[in-house]
Every structure is written in C-alpha cells, then in structure tokens.
C-alpha cells in the first residue's frame, strides 16, 4: 500500500458522531448461564441508556426471547446470529473511513490468545454484512488477530496500545513488534503507535487491553487507572505505566493532559479470585458517556471525574458488578459504528 493510500484511511475516534452501538446479548449456552438473569438485566440497562441517544443493534440467539427483557425498544434493533459469548468490542467490526467511505474491517478473534472458544463470535461481523444489517459499507477481512479493546485511536493518526496484548505469543507470533506496528499503520492510516509496556489488572483475560487501563478522551487527554497504595499488587505496574504516559506527547510534541481515575476497591468472585473492576472501561456515545460502576465508594468520584473530562456529555453510571464476574466491563460489551455506516431499519 503506497503512502497516498495510507493517508486516505482514518480510524475515527470513539467521540466522533456514531450511527449505532452494537452489543451481543447473553444466552444460556454462553459462560453467563449461571448468572443469566443478572447479566441480562445489566445488558438491558446499557442498551436502554444508549438508545436514548442513538440506535443500538442487539445480536442475540433468539429475538423473541431477548426482546421480552425490554421495557422500551425504541431505537433498539434485534438480529439473530449465533455467538459463543458477549464481548462485542473484541469480535465486532472495526470501521475505518477510506476517503469518507466506511470500510468495516473484520479481524480474527481467537478468544484472547486461544483462551476460549470463539468460532461463532468470529463469524458475527460477516453475518451482519451478509444479512444486510450493516449498509453503505464494505467488508474487508484480515488474516491477523486483533481485538477492538486492544487499540485506542484519536482519529488523527495516533494509535495507543500495549505490548502485553499485541505481542502475546498466541495472537500473531509470526510478527515482530515493528511488523505489527507497520500493520496497524497500514490498516488504520496511522502515523504513529504509542506502546505501553506496563500496566495490568488482576483477573483480566485480555492480556492488558488498553481499554481497561488507559483511554484517549480527546486529542490531548488520556484518562488512566492510578494506584497509589504500595500494598496493592498493582502498585508497581501502574506506577510504571503512569511514568510511561508522562513521556508520551501529542503529535505536535505537547505532553498529554493526564487524568487519573480512581482505583476501585478490590472485588472478588465466590472463589476468592480478584476481578478486574476498572473505571477506564467507559463507552463514549452521542451525547453521553456510559460509565461502569460497581457499588463501591469510588463510584461517585469516577462520575465526577468523567464529567470534568466530558463537560458537554451526560455521564450515565451503570452498575456493571455482574460483568466483571466474567472478567470484562461496559466498554468490552459494546462496539460503536461511525455515522457513515447505516443500520438496516
């Protein structure tokens, strides 16, 4: 691909105008079986909150079954497609603009480095295209493992990611870090890739997806998970991550405005395993930010901080305590599509 072709490509930032949000609803043949009603209620809360501002596409095993959960289906669209699980951020299409035209890029999703079965999830994007639900766009498939939660874009040519995820041996072991960076630049029209080498959350199955620890909020601002307790297992790694972020600059050489998010009190499952509660896993939509909260004392502070970052948007806290039982949170279950992609009505 020549330079002019690369420059015609752009990966929109999440804060740019959106056409719709995609989620994949829990079902009894997923890992949510033992928490199906609790998880379903959380998904309904997310979907109905988002539907106040834009369309929402709900991928489900059975439309009649899933529709019955909803009090209000205005702006909500249902489609039956088989799935293994519910993490739309990682099995959903990643949309670039090529001279303004939408291209939905379909990457291999292999269950976060072959940890979980993902054969059905890996077919969802193609099925949505084949069924005509995604319109005014073309599909481009890649023989490359990539999850949407592993990259952040400022819409202007900067990609933020982590080495722990993209260099993990069960994703793309045939490529070096430089070769992966070149692929990101080529596929997304990026000018540069900022790599974080530190930062993790206990209980995270994704190998440090960027959307769990540090988020681009606008071209000049990064919100990140801080940890100031030397007794916590995360202290060293997150302090190193903070130091790395302090060295990053915008394209013009200006240091980023860094906003520290609260560090959530430890949450554990019934077997005593620590769960990845994070306030960084918010979803930006048209007119609002959907913020995961966990019934913790840090929830209110997180809302206040996000409101200062996004003064023009409504901050909507949604209790996502049940989602971290399966090691993800709110951003992980959503995938936005820019306004150039149209949804079949």
Give your account of this protein's structure.
The chain has 345 residues and is of the alpha/beta class. The protein has one domain: L-arginine/glycine Amidinotransferase, Chain A, CATH 3.75.10.10. It is built from 10 helices and 21 strands.
Q: What order do the helices and strands come in, and which of them pair?
A:
Blueprint: H1 3-7, E1 9-10, E2 18-24, H2 36-51, E3 55-60, H3 63-67, E4 76-80, H4 88-91, E5 94-98, E6 101-108, H5 111-114, H6 124-130, E7 134-135, E8 137-145, E9 152-153, E10 158-162, H7 163-166, H8 177-188, E11 192-196, E12 214-218, E13 221-225, H9 235-247, E14 257-261, E15 267-268, E16 274-275, E17 283-285, E18 288-293, H10 299-309, E19 314-319, E20 335-338, E21 342-343
Parallel strand pairs: 2-3, 3-4, 6-8, 10-11, 13-14, 18-19
Antiparallel strand pairs: 1-5, 2-20, 5-6, 7-21, 9-10, 12-13, 15-16, 17-18
Q: In a few lines, what is going on in this structure?
A:
With 345 residues, this protein is of the alpha/beta class.
The CATH architecture name reads: 5-stranded Propeller
Strand order of the largest sheet: 1-5-6-8
Radius of gyration: 19 Å
Please provide the count of β strands: 21
By DSSP (H or I, 4+ residues per run), the number of helices equals 10
Q: Which range does the strand content fall in? A: 25-35%
Which stretches are poorly predicted, pLDDT < 50 over at least 5 residues?
Answer: 1-5
Alpha-beta content class: alpha/beta
Taking all residues together, what is the mean pLDDT? 96
Major sheet summary line: 4 strands, mixed
Classify the fold: give the CATH topology.
L-arginine/glycine Amidinotransferase, Chain A
Tally of individual domains: 1
CATH class: Alpha Beta
Distance between the termini: 36 Å
